[in-house]
Prior knowledge:
alpha+beta
Amino acid sequence: xxxxxxxxxxxxxxxxxxxEAYRKLVEFKKAKNSPLVxxxxxxxxxxxxxxxxxxxxxxxxxx
Length: 63
């Protein structure tokens, strides 16, 4: 069975990969001048890639 430290390291790697994928997606959408398509409040909406943050950091809540 994995220890808590091993699980934390694995989670951190996954989060870092997701943050990098987000950064690359925004960069690609800006280069192609293509909207980001997301679901917001149960509706599908298009967002201008210039209106979003180029990076996003995951903050884990305590608890």
